[in-house]
Amino acid sequence: MKITPQCVVALTWTLKDTLGDVLDELDEPVEFLLGGDDLLAKIEESLQGHQAGDQLELHLEPEYAFGDYDENLVFLEPRDIFPAELEEGMTFDGAALPAGASGHIPHEHIYTVTEIYPEHVVLDGNHPLAGIAIRLAARVESVREATEEEIDQGTLGTGFFKLEPLTPRNGTLH
Asked: Whole-prediction pTM value?
C-alpha cells in the first residue's frame, strides 16, 4: 500500500542536527497518523506516495521543523510560586501555570524549566529543538489504512513532535 494523505505509517529513523549529532533514534517502528497532528508537515509531504521498505533522507530548516527560536517566549517567574521539588527539564502547560505567574505569558505553549535560581525560574516556551535545522533518515516499516476513530482523534498519541506537559491541567506535579 502506498502512503496517502490519511493513513497510518510505521517509521524507524535517526534524527540528527546539522553537525551530525544524534538527537533521536527510533530503532523499533512507531506508528504515526498522516493527516493528523503526529508529524511535521514537511515529513508528511515527503512520505506521500512511498510504501513499506522505502527510505527517505530529509534536511529540514528550522521553519519547517520546530520553528525559529523566539526569545519572546522566555520568561522569568518567581521561584516561590513553584513546588519545592521543581527540577530543570520539567514542563508546564501554559494554561495551568501556578497562581502568581505573570499574566502576560501566552497560554497556548508548553513551558520548559530551563534554569532555577534562588529567586526566579526561567520558563522557555520554545520547543527544545527550535532554531535547529535537522536531518532525518527514515525508513517506512509499514503502511495501513487509518481507522475512523484514529482519524477523528487526529493523532495516535505519538508525541515526539509535540511537547506534553509533565503537569496535569490543575497544576499539581506527579
From this structure: 0.76
Q: List, in sequence order, every residue forming a beta bridge with 12; answer none if it has no partner.
A: 139
Residue ranges of alpha helices (H) inside the chain are 41-47, 148-153
Measured CA to CA, the distance from residue 96 to residue 170 in angstroms comes to 6
Cell matching residue 20: 551530525
Cα dihedral sign for 52, 136, 6, 151? positive
In tens, the pLDDT along 110-157 reads 999 999 999 999 999 999 899 999 999 999 999 999 999 988 888 887
In whole angstroms, give the CA distance from residue 116 to residue 101: 15
- Cell (9 digits) for 45: 509531504
Whole-number Å distance between alpha carbons of 153 and 146 = 11
pLDDT tens digits, 90-115 = 999 998 898 888 888 998 899 999 99
Q: Given the C-alpha cell 522566555, which residue does it identify?
A: 74
**Helices H / strands E in the chain, number of each:** 2, 8
φ, ψ of residue 171 in degrees (nearest 5): 85, 0
